[in-house]
Amino acid sequence: MDYCDPAIGTFAANYEGRPIAFDGLIADLARHGDSDTRYDILISAGDDIDSGAGPAFKYEDVNTTSDFGWTDPARQDTVGEGDRLRFTAEVVEYRSNQCLLYLDPIATEFR
Fold first, then answer.
1. Which of 59, 69, 72, 99 could make an S-S bridge to 41, C-beta 3.0–4.6 Å?
2. CA quadruple 95, 30, 55, 15: dihedral, nearest 10
């Protein structure tokens, strides 16, 4: 599926406010504004940034330590771009003009 496929909007509307779980990786991690502890994170589905499997996901204004719901807190300080993770998150909304499916983290684990 193309990451900007209109079916993603339908999926988001059907699952808004509900949790989903998927394997993915951190494609980009950028500071949120001037914050040193809050980030905007682009997440790619699957095992490879170029896999093209499904939508592009985004966490916005999150703290990687306290907001991720780590299943193994000992590893929470080592997260970064390219890390392969298992994400459980609540569907917030799909912004078709950005081709991004916004999520709020619930639980995260390294895989």
1. 59
2. -60
